[in-house]
Amino acid sequence: MADGALCREPVELSGRERSVLRTVAVRGMESELFCELEAGHGHEHAAPVAGGMWLRWWPGRRVLEARAACGAQSDEGAACRVLGGHEGSHSFDLAEPLFPADAGWSGARR
Question: What is the rounded average pLDDT of the residues 48-68?
Fold first, then answer.
């Protein structure tokens, strides 16, 4: 059973970020991404893009980089899907929020 919830803060890939991803042969990625860290974390957000690429963002700063996944596994064998060195709980201990992202919750869209 999950203890916490995912942050799910949304972010749009910029044109520059999409261009960089195309140069490393990442195609077909979604433009809108969501933070995969535990809700209530610090200022850094992180979302998987594709092919081991992650977008990390803070107020006023964004970083697109290749990072390894966490690698932790639950007792049931589920792998943590968050980037290595993440803060908070592992993804297998987190639940999706109980509300849809665009349901008007004040933290869902900015």
Answer: 91
Report the predicted TM-score, pTM, of the whole model to 2 decimal places: 0.76
DSSP 48-90: EEETTEEEEEETTEEEEEE--B---B-TT-PBP-SBTT-SSS-
Closest CA to 62 of 49, 46, 41, 78: 46
Residues 4-13: tens digit of each pLDDT: 888 999 999 9
**Joined tokens for residue 104:** 């008007």
Nearest to 38 by CA among 78, 95, 104, 85: 95
- β-partners of residue 65 are 54
